[in-house]
Amino acid sequence: MIYLFRMLRKSFRSSMRQKTVRLSFFLILAVTFIATGLLSIGIVGKTFDYSIGDIAREDIRVPLEINYKIESETRVEKMRVAETVPLVFDVDQTVLIDRLKILETLFDNIEQTIREYPPDGTDRTFQFMMLKGRLPESIHFEDKVLFNLLQYPRPAELRQIMRRIIIYIQDTGVLERPYDNPLNLKNKNVTIRLFNSQDDASEISRGLDTLKTIDDVRRDLYTICLSIAPNLNKDQLFLVFVVAGRLIHPNLGFNVDETRRRIEETTHGVKPVMGVLKKGQTLVREGDTITTDALNKISILNNHARSSKINYILGILLLHLSFFIIFGYFLVEFHAKLLPDKKIPVIVFVIILVFMVYTFFLSRTENILNSTVNFAFYLPIPAVTMIIATLFNLFLAVIIGLYVIFFSFVVSGGSMAVIIIAFSSAILGVFVLNNVEKRTGFLRGGLFLGLINSLVVLGICLMEELSLADTFKNIELALASGIVNSILVLGVFPLFENMFGIVTKFNLLELSDLNAPIFKRMLIEAPGTYNHSLMVATMAEAACKEIGANYLLARVGGYYHDIGKIAESGIYIENKVTDPRSKTLTPGEYSNIIISHVRKGVDIAKNNKLPPEVIDFILEHHGQTTMTYFYHQALEAAEAGGKGAEVNKVEFQYPGPRPHSRETAVVMLADSIEAASRSLQEPSYVKLESLVKKIIHNKLNDDELEFSSLTMADLNKVQRAFMQVLNGFFHTRMEYPEQEEVRRLEQKVMNGKGEA
Question: 688 by DSSP, 3-state: which?
Answer without folding.
Answer: helix
